[in-house]
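Session log. Operator J.P. requested a structure for one protein chain; no other inputs attached. Running the standard single-chain path with token output.
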Amino acid sequence: MIRTSRYLPLAVAAILLCAGMPGSAEVIGTMTPGEPLSETRIASLPAAQRAVWTEYWRRSLERTSADKAALAAERQGLAHIPAGPPTGGTASMPLGRDPTWYGSDEARGIAATIISFQTPAGGWDKNQDRAGPPRLRGQTWGSVGTIDNGATTTELRFLARVQLALPGQDGVGLRAAFLKGLRYLLEAQYPNGGWPQYYPLQGGYHDAVTFNDDALVNASQLLADVAAREEAYAFVPDALAAEAQRAVDRSVLLIVRTQVVAGGKHTGWGQQHDAISLMPVGARNFEPASLASNESSSLLAFLMELPNPSPEVVRAIHDGAAWLEARALLDLEWTGAGPDGRRLRPKLGTRPLWARFYDIRTMCPIFGDRDKTIHDDVNELSLERRNGYSWFGNHPARVLGLYRTWAISHLVN
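Structure written below.
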């Protein structure tokens, strides 16, 4: 347990010995992407686990076929196939407005567009403009449903707010779409408690248990709100709310199980973990298997919100916070993009930084490039990748501040 209110001074000396500081300039490896889920991998599981995974695999295939069949049926007889939906993202679904706004024509129009783009399986694709026109016949839904970039969970939260403002007949369709989306989230959850990035499954690293960009946290928090029957979710049937709570419980157990043990110590989490082995795996070419400071911070924040954490959860929080504290980078500046691109350079008195990725063996910062090379010096990356990715950030500082308050009343047994 950490009881100090300052970043550990001993950690500073250790970090300065790490690779990753300006000037080391070595290629230390090559990125290997995560494996997809497959029937062959499921067959390698212990006999007691195969049935639930085989059923999950079968449902995913059926959902894929049903989505394709639904689109093909819509396109029968069409002289022109509409272009795909416009992009926009979650900003077109504001969640912080005054409650009365959600009964307005504007909000109802956004909700109508949201419902029109709900996939047959019940989810939504990401990065779409929900303030635009509803989906046309024969138009794609974009892709299959996903929890990446706030997709599906944001649509569901928006629909819940609008239906709350429309308690009568006008809200019936909204509540039906919400329940369909809720069942989609429950169905998409892996037997081990995690979620893939896309469902139905799309292969590649997308099949990994996805912590990246708070995907699992967003899904778990929404289900927790449903289970608690918070005002906007009070219409959810009791049985479905209870199922949501069981899904949250499974996700919490999964988080505890996936906390990486290195050198005999529990540390942090990766951006994504293999669905079968639960070990961190790589994703895009520049995202190697590693420990991820942002995702670890968000998982800790979620665990600290649990009302009655188990001893295992309490231990995971203390250990995760200790790992984050020890990874703080002091007296370093991540500069803005100048003629030579963003650079990491020494500068006294700067606020703590955390690298996005840390090597699991050495606990030193690592950085990936488009060609799959892994580097120990961010300054040696290509200009495009140095400027185009969030290699450093300060998000863990806020979470560690929350931790210090939480730790006062949650001692290690």
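Operator note: Residues 1-16 have pLDDT under 50 and may be disordered.
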